[in-house]
């Protein structure tokens, strides 16, 4: 089976060689690389630099290197400040530069969520629709904020990040799955997919996470396997579960067919991002 991880901050895995060794050990064929070094004093995701107008220009040197050296193993996503004067030109590079496949919108702060709700990211979505760019959106517990964008930009492939719900850092509360009501409601939009990452944090039963698997089955039923994609976000989730555990509870379950697993564990991401598997 072609297994593709929809999110790893691969630069945090010591070295490219060490990370690829870990990929091979787990059985991951390819990774969508999300380069992330941390945050600056203004809560801006590094690496990057400030422009004269105050916008932040993100750069992706290590992701680009990995994708150029090992195109069969890596593609990468990018993020751009909506205030960047070259926003549309930058978004137009996605799908044209080698292995640059998608855009990620991360409001992150309370101010960012408020501005997103007010439509501040419409220029981002407008450029994404014009240039046929998939957009990952991180709105934990606030997925309903997407609705106006989905109505206005129906041709943008939108991927809901990290299951779309608030993910507990400690013991999950009894109502931990309540946020999925808003996520499931977005299944009516045919251009929306769900990135199923960090989900084991929601489990109160431990590996192989039967309570989480039951929720996944509901999401797959609503969205179809073609619109659900697995991601580990391993560097950020390893405090709770291993890379292997994040994958194997899905890969080894008898609750999903082989065809469903093939879509969830790789084919959905490749199809959405127009990232064909290498010919062997």
Automatic annotation (TrEMBL):
The keyword Hydrolase applies. The lineage of its organism: Bacteria, Thermotogati, Deinococcota, Deinococci, Deinococcales. Keywords: Hydrolase. One of its GO terms (molecular function) is hydrolase activity. The keyword Lipid metabolism does not apply. This is Putative TIM-barrel fold metal-dependent hydrolase. Residues 65-266 form the Amidohydrolase-related domain. SUPFAM superfamilies: Metallo-dependent hydrolases (SSF51556).
């Amino acid at each position: 089976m072609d297994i593709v991880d929809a999110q790893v901050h691969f630069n945090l895995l010591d070295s490219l060689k060490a990370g690829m060794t870990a990929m091979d050990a787990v059985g991951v064929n390819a990774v969508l690389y999300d380069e992330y070094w941390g945050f600056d004093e203004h809560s801006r995701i590094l690496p990057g630099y400030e422009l004269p107008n105050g916008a932040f220009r993100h750069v992706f040197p290590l992701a680009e290197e990995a994708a150029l050296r090992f195109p069969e193993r890596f593609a990468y996503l990018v993020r751009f400040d909506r205030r960047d004067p070259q926003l549309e030109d930058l978004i137009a590079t996605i799908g044209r530069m080698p292995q640059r496949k998608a855009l990620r919108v991360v409001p992150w702060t309370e101010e960012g969520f408020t501005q997103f709700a007010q439509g501040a990211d419409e220029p981002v979505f407008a450029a994404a629709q014009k240039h046929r760019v998939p957009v990952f959106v991180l709105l934990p517990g606030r997925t309903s904020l997407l609705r106006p964008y989905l109505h206005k930009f129906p041709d943008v492939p939108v991927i809901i990040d990290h299951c779309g719900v608030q993910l507990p850092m400690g013991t999950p509360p009894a109502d931990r799955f309540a946020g999925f009501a808003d996520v499931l409601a977005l299944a009516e939009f045919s251009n929306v997919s769900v990135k199923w990452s960090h989900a084991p944090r929601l489990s109160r039963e431990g590996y192989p996470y039967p309570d989480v698997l039951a929720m996944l089955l509901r999401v797959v039923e609503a969205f179809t396997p073609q619109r659900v994609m697995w991601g580990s976000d391993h560097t950020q989730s390893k405090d709770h579960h291993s890379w292997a555990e994040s994958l194997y509870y899905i890969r080894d379950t008898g609750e999903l067919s082989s065809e469903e697993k093939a879509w969830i564990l790789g084919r959905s991401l490749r199809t959405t991002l127009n990232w064909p598997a290498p010919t062997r």
